[in-house]
Amino acid sequence: xxxxxxxxxxxxxxxxxxxxxxxxxxxxxxxxxxxxxxxxxxxxxxxxxxxxxxxxxxxxxxxxxxxxxxxxxxxxxxxxxxxxxxxxxxxxxxxxxxxxxxxxxxxxxxxxxxxxxxxxxxxxxxxxxxxxxxxxxxxxxxxxxxxxxxxxxxxxxxxxxxxxxxxxxxxxxxxxxxxxxxxxxxxxxxxxxxxxxxxxxxxxxxxxxxxxxxxxxxxxxxxxxxxxxxxxxxxxxxxxxxxxxxxxxxxxxxxxxxxxxxxxxxxxxxxxxxxxxxxxxxxxxxxxxxxxxxxxxxxxxxxxxxxxxxxxxxxxxxxxxxxxxxxxxxxxxxxxxxxxxxxxxxxxxxxxxxxxxxxxxxxxxxxxxxxxxxxxxxxxxxxxxxxxxxxxxxxxxxxxxxxxxxxxxxxxxxxxxxxxxxxxxxxxxxxxxxxxxxxxxxxxxxxxxxxxxxxxxxxxxxxxxxxxxxxxxxxxxxxxxxxxxxxxxxxxxxxxxxxxxxxxxxxxxxxxxxxxxxxxxxxxxxxxxxxxxxxxxxxxxxxxxxxxxxx
Amino acid sequence: xxxxxxxxxxxxxxxxxxxxxxxxxxxxxxxxxxxxxxxxxxxxxxxxxxxxxxxxxxxxxxxxxxxxxxxxxxxxxxxxxxxxxxxxxxxxxxxxxxxxxxxxxxxxxxxxxxxxxxxxxxxxxxxxxxxxxxxxxxxxxxxxxxxxxxxxxxxxxxxxxxxxxxxxxxxxxxxxxxxxxxxxxxxxxxxxxxxxxxxxxxxxxxxxxxxxxxxxxxxxxxxxxxxxxxxxxxxxxxxxxxxxxxxxxxxxxxxxxxxxxxxxxxxxxxxxxxxxxxxxx
Lengths: 551, 281
Fold this sequence. Notes:
CATH superfamily of chain B: Thiamin diphosphate (ThDP)-binding fold, Pyr/PP domains
Strand content of chain A: 15-25%
Oligomer: heterodimer
Largest sheet of chain A: 8 strands, mixed
Helix content of chain A: 25-40%
Strand order of the largest sheet of chain B: 2-1-3-4-6-5-8-7
Shape of chain A: globular
Strand order of the largest sheet of chain A: 6-5-4-1-3-2-14-7
Shape of chain B: globular
Number of helices of chain B: 11
CATH architecture of the largest domain in chain A: 3-Layer(aba) Sandwich
Distance between the termini of chain A: 20 Å
Number of strands of chain A: 21
CATH class of the largest domain in chain A: Alpha Beta
Largest sheet of chain B: 8 strands, mixed
Largest interface: A-B, 68 and 57 residues
Number of domains of chain B: 1
Number of strands of chain B: 8
CATH class of chain B: Alpha Beta
C-alpha cells in the first residue's frame, strides 16, 4: 500500500448510515482529485446485522479497496470485534464509547450525543464523517458545508451533532493524516451505473427487469433517470415476463436490455434460446452472487461463468463478455448492445456484485461508445430469415407492407414453420455460419486485455482483474496479466504462445471454472489456480502474498 | 387462397372449429381496414398448440412465441410502438395454464392488447390431456382415472384482475365472432375474447355448445351483473360481457410518446450522459 493509499473503513448496523458515510468520504477524496475505490459490504436485511463501507484512495491508480484501514470508525460493538485488527501501522480506531466501553483507540460518545437529536441511529454515520474530517485536518466550516449538502433532510440537527462530535474528537486526532491532492477531479460511478449508461449510449430505449440483487440498482438508476434520459423502464411480474416482453420490443425496433442475477437469469433461459432461434437482438446483464440457488444475495462470486456461456437449449450463437473495471463496463455494455444488433442474437454481459455495486473514479469518453445498428431491409420482397453467406439476414420492423414473421419453431426463410429435413439443415447451417461470422469479426476486436510486459503470466477475468492489478501494484510485482474480455466465442487466437509458460489463474469459483475453460479452449493447463469463494472479493494484500508464494 | 392466407399447408382436422376462428379473424381484419386500421398495423403473436398454427396460415406480420408467453411478447410489441394494434392467439393451456400470470398482470395493468383464447378444453396437440378448464372427472392420458381438480373460471378471474373488455364467441356464429373481434381490437385496453372451440378429435363439444349457448342480448353494466353472467352454469352466454374505459398501461407509463418513433439521438445521449456523470457523487 506504501504511503500513497489512504483507507477509511466505517462499520455499524444496517440503518446507521454506514454506506452513506462511505459515499460522503468517497466524494471528499474525489474532490481532492484522488482516485477512489469504494466497496460496500452489507447483508440481506433491513435493520441490525453488520454493514461496513471501505473507501481507499490514492493519487495514483487504484483498482481495489484495502481491508486494512488508516482510519477505522466503528459505531457498534460487532463492528469493533470484527474490524479492530484491520488497521495499518499508523492507523487509528475511533469507536463509539457508549456501546463499546473501553477499547483500543479513541472512544467518542457517538450514541449519547446522538440521543440529544431526533434520529439517533442514522445520525451516527454523520459522526463517522466528522471523525474523518478531523483526522484529515479539515476545519469546522468545511465540515458544516458538507453535512448541510449531504444530510440535507435534517440539516440543522445533523450539523449541530457534527459540531459536538468534532469538539470531542478533534483534540485527539486533529490533522493526523495529510493527504496529497491530485490534479483534477474525476467522476465516480458504480459498476451498475456504468453498465446502464453504456447501454444507453449505444441506444437503449427500454429496460426490463425484475428486482434481484446485485443487479437491481441498474433498474433503480435507470428508473430514477427515465425522464432526463428519455427512456422507458418496466418492472413486470417475473423474469419470464421481463425477457419475453423485451423480445417483443426488440422486434418492434426498440433497443432493449434485461438484467438479473443467477436465479432470474435461469428463469430467462428458455427465452434466451427463443432470441437465438428468432434471431432477436437482446442484451442481457447477469450480475453474479454466490450460488447455487438463492445463495448469498449481497455478496460476490464468479460461479456463473459456465452458466453464462452456455445459456439456453439448442444450438445458437451468443456472445458473452465480462468487464474488468467500472470504466470498461461502460464500453462493454455499449459494444454488446452493438453486437446484439449487428448479429441479431443474444449477448450477455457477465459481471459480479463486486463490480456491480462497488464504485470507482472513472475515465469514460462517451464518444468511444458503440452505437447499435442493424443491417436493415431496403426494398423488394422481404424474407425474415433470408439465407445469406454470413448467416445474417436484414432486419425490418413493423409496420410494413412486407410480411415479417418471427418464429420460435424451425422455419423457412419466410418465417413459416417447417419440419422438412433439408430446411432444418439449411437453418441450422445459417445459425452456425452466423457464429463463424461473429468469431471472424471478433478477431479484429479487442477481446483480450494485457497488462505488464514481463514476469509470469496471470490469467483472470471480470472484477477479479481489479483485485489482481491492485495486488501487483501493492507489492510492485512484475507479471503479465491476460484478461479475456470476451468469454464466448472464446478468443483462443489470443492465447497462442502461452502454451509453454506457467500460467497462474486467479478466479472466484470453488471448482476453478475459468481454469477449466482455458484448458478446454486453449489446451493450456494452469500451474496454479488461486481461488476464493467466500463471497468476498480478494483483498489486494492477501492476494499479493498468495501470488508471491507461487511466482 | 385469399389475400390473408399464406402458402403454408393447413393441417387442422377437417371440420375443426379453428377454421371458424381463422375465417372470422380474416373478416375482422377486412372490417378493421374499412374502419381505418390497415393490416400492416395489426401485429399478431401466438403461443404453442393447435390454435397457434394460425400464425403460419395468416398473412399478417408477427411473432410465433413460446408456450404461455405470447401475451408477454405482445405487451412488449405494444410498449415499443403504441401505434400498433397487437392481437395474441392463445390456447386454453397457454393462456390459463402456462401463461396465466401474464394474463392476470396484463389485465391488472390494462395492457392495450387483445387476447383471443381458443378454448377447446383439451391439450390437443399433445394428444388429449386435461387443461385448467377441464371439468372434474375428465379422463385423458395424464389423468386415466379422471381429473381430481375442479376447473378454473378464467373470465371471472379476468374480471377480478382488471380486464376492461371481456367477451365470449362461438365459431359457428361467425358474423358475431367477427364483430366481437373488431370491437376487442378497437377497444383501448386489455381485451379478452374467449372462443368456445370444439375439438372434433379429442373433445367434441359441438352438441353441448349448440344446446347451451345463448346470445347475450345486452352488455351488462354493473360488476355484479357481469360476475353473474360469467359464472352462469345452465347457459353459456355469447357476446360482449364487459366493456369499460380505464387508462392503458403504456399511456400511464409514458403518455403520448412512442419509444421507437421518438428515440433520443446519439449526440443528445452523449450530452445527457456527461451531465449525469458529473452530477453523481
